[in-house]
Amino acid sequence: MAKNFAYKARDINGEIHKGTISAENERAVVNFIREKDYFVTEIKEVKDESSFDDIVSKIRGVSTKEIALFCRQLSTMIDAGVPLVTGISILIDQTYNPVLKRAFRDIYQQIQQGQTLSLAMKKHEKLFPTLMLHMIEAGEVGGVLDAVLARLADHLEKEHKMKEKIKSAMTYPIVVITLAFGIVMFILVKVMPTFMTMFQNMKTELPLPTKILLGASGFMQSYWWLLILSIFGIIGLASYLYKNSLEYRRKSDYITTKLPVFGVLLQKVAIARFSRTLSTLLYGGVPILTALDVVKNVTGNINMIEALSEASKDVRDGFTMSDTLKKSGIFTPMVVQMVGIGEETGQLDTMLNKIADFYESDVDDMVARLSSLMEPLMITILGIIIGGIIISVELPMFDAVTSVGR
């Protein structure tokens, strides 16, 4: 089994060289260093530390923001004339994520052994986005790796900002719904049993809302675990069907896009992601057919994926992409027209970039409006739930007081 070794060596001019290498033993490391006509001064095994932060990083993985930072820093260093292998070495020291640091070490070793950056990164394809691997490969072939990395950084930074804005818009309603569920559960399980005894002693006909509330309270006291299992079971079944049933996923995505407000938002997010990713790939010199195959897997919508698969076939057969997008009925007329103009003028990447800018701006406005509307809406819903419970509890008391008055 290969181990990681850190080494120091001197060349014939006395200059010190440092690095890490994966090898079976120290003898293999010595042979590697001697092949470079260096003199070995130090070799020591580097053992992986299994710290709490390391475990957390493995679970969390690598974020889009971290990948964007890698692209930005490496692009800046290459543009400044820093050799690629030196740039990777610097990034190893500046990276705090243990998972990413180990990947950089391996990439550094492979580049030292004469491997290209794209091939070295492909061995860690689970960490890096597919479009990144294709663009870096195209950038190396075209000799514009620094420009491609800069464009990649722009793309990933905008993708990260869009995700964060959508997360922030969804956080408030999720918190309020969770809070409301917790309050209702507490009232049904802990508070209502007290009122249940009192209502039984009153020996009067209870109103329908009160009967429903008492029935729910009795069920929750005895079968609360069944409700929790049912919720997790439904979520698990839905996730399983979404991953394994193409028809279920197609219907699910179709229904999701038809939801009021949120459906339009998700459609615009998918179009912005498609436009930005395809524009970035084409700018990097990736062939259109390869780019379409990459893009269809980042939209997240099965109907859009199938439309892009059809577009790829049509382009391969000599047809324009705009005609296929129009035929699908998923893309807006503006997208179809601008893609058509881009194909006619030979500036498809520029047009797609403008489409992405427009829809990302539109998404920002929608998220801002949703955030401002969500707070009063959630408060109203929470008030209706709690108010309904209070009214259900007060109705029998009001009836009893009225009966006494008569």
What's the N-to-C terminus distance? 91 Å
Rg over CA atoms:
30 Å
Rounded mean pLDDT score:
81
Shape category: extended
How large is the share of residues in beta strands? 5-15%
The run of helices and strands is: EEHEHHHHHHHHHHHHHHH
Largest sheet: 3 strands, antiparallel
pLDDT below 50 for ≥5 consecutive residues: which ranges? 49-57
Explain the overall architecture.
By secondary structure, the protein is mainly α. The protein has helices spanning 26-35, 52-60, 64-79, 84-94, 98-112, 117-122, 130-142, 145-202, 208-244, 246-257, 262-283, 288-295, 302-316, 321-328, 333-345, 348-405, and strands at residues 3-10, 16-23, 39-46. Strands 2-1-3 form a three-stranded antiparallel beta sheet. β1 and β2 form a beta hairpin. The termini are far apart.
Secondary structure layout plus pairing:
Layout: E1 3-10, E2 16-23, H1 26-35, E3 39-46, H2 52-60, H3 64-79, H4 84-94, H5 98-112, H6 117-122, H7 130-142, H8 145-202, H9 208-244, H10 246-257, H11 262-283, H12 288-295, H13 302-316, H14 321-328, H15 333-345, H16 348-405
Antiparallel strand pairs: 1-2, 1-3
Helix pairs in contact: 3-4, 3-8, 4-5, 7-8, 8-9, 8-11, 8-16, 9-10, 9-16, 11-12, 11-16, 12-13, 13-14, 14-15, 15-16
